[in-house]
Amino acid sequence: MNLKKLLFGSVIFFLFVASKTITTTDYLNLPATPYEYSVSLPNYYANNVNPIDNTPATNPITNHGATLGRVLFYDKNLSINRTVSCASCHKQSEGFSDSRTLSIGFAGGTTDRHGMTVLNARYYQRGRFFWDERAATLEDQVLQPLQNTVEMGLTAAQISERVSEQPYYNQLFINAFGDNSITNDRISKALAQFVRSIVSYQSKYDIGRAAVNNPNQPFANFTAQENQGKQLFFTPIPQGGGGCAGCHGTEAFVSARPENNGIDLTSTTDLGVGGVAPIRPNLIGHFKNSSIRNIELTAPYMHDGRFTTLEQVVEHYNSGIQAHPNLSGILKDANGNPIRLNFSTAQKNALVAFMRTLTDNSVATEARWSNPFCQTNLSFTGTINSGGFQSSNAILVQDGSSTQVQSGSTVNLVSGKAIILNPSFEAKTGSVFKAQISTCQ
Ligand code: HEC
Ligand code: HEC
């Protein structure tokens, strides 16, 4: 959705006072029957992906649990000044990652590292999270950004308080957990369920893969270049390939453990896994990589977002690997030096073309993972109070191109919220009109 902030002073807009009773649907665009969050994955997931699922027996995905998690994930009330949600840094359109090199928290501060995708988080077998694996489980991880002083800035106690304040959570907790007790433990479980539900299995790769017995066979739906890239990706370095699948493996394209891939000669500012207490010198410079499915959507790349294109990433592996003391053995030659792939331009382009076959637009667009605070064609009754400005925390901003305002009908709004109209629209107090509105929290 293309939203644009309009400036005060440049528009005429109105404050409406609603007179109706607020219901959950006034805030949330949720289906009457919840979406399906535990879909059955393709057969070829059975061998090497299902066994590495980190879902604990104590927190299986349910449709109501993931629905609650979805609302929490998109709710800006969960940051101290109500400006940032999980989705501010894990954007659906950007493969649940962040196109900014470093993400920006509630007060404008930047995160220490590049925002990771949460796609396929479920398939990291070690079950640890963050680039340095400092979170022991996903259930532990999801409460950390809420309390991070740069990211969302709540205290532990404020988490459940903020959730309890919002009228729409009562029913969502009853649906998910059987009663309306709102605890951090349940918030963590629901968020983790939603995150684990975000998996990719509908890319061009998947269409090709479904038609063959093993991924090494050429895919009929691939171009020759994509098939060449696939072969380079899967073939080990000593056999003339790029050895990529050695660290970005299985059909989920995930790593089995943190590694050092030689992007730096030494580790100075960010020690990675080895820097998490207790300091482990042999793991300094090791980083977790989540999944490279949807990699085309998740630029920039690496824990510090240093590479902006996949071409740069491939060139790194081709010619740029540095002799970090903890460089992975896979990336060393027989003498212990960093390998040089010496690929031709055609080979490098083929690798990039292959990685693009992992793009799954369903992940970037499907409603079950989208912002439930976005609604279209809202219909509330209200009264125009006056022209002027409003400062509630939920200013709804609409891109002028998709806002249509027609005279002749009634306008509407949720109490305490206001709509800033298209700057080209002007009306006086007392006007009646109809707004075709698409709004997000
Ligand atoms: C201000 C930006 C920001 C916000 C808000 C934010 N994150 Fe993140 N997220 C990041 C960054 C940056 C990282 C990587 C940090 C690191 O590794 O040190 C990350 C990492 C993660 C990971 C780890 C993925 C992996 O494979 O290890 C998960 C899961 C995650 N975030 C989920 C969430 C959830 C759930 C929320 C909301 C409760 C949230 N994030 C809010 C920026 C953000
Ligand atoms: C020895 C293990 C290893 C091998 C082999 C390897 N990688 Fe990586 N890869 C990693 C690690 C670890 C990271 C994250 C490093 C960091 O951020 O510091 C990474 C990051 C990436 C990223 C960026 C991911 C992101 O989310 O930002 C891409 C793309 C990538 N690798 C592609 C490849 C390709 C293509 C090959 C083969 C030419 C390859 N890798 C070979 C370990 C490896």
UniProtKB/TrEMBL annotation:
GO cellular component, as recorded: cell envelope
InterPro entries reported in the protein's UniProt record: Cyt_c-like_dom, Cyt_c-like_dom_sf, Cytochrome_c_Peroxidase/MauG, Di-haem_cyt_c_peroxidsae, GCX_COOH
Domain Cytochrome c: 224-359
Transmembrane segments: none
Main location: other
Subcellular location: Cell envelope
One Pfam entry name: CCP_MauG
Keywords for this protein: Heme, Iron, Metal-binding, Oxidoreductase, Peroxidase, Signal
Signal peptide boundaries: 1-20
One example GO MF annotation: metal ion binding
Protein's name according to its UniProt entry: Cytochrome-c peroxidase
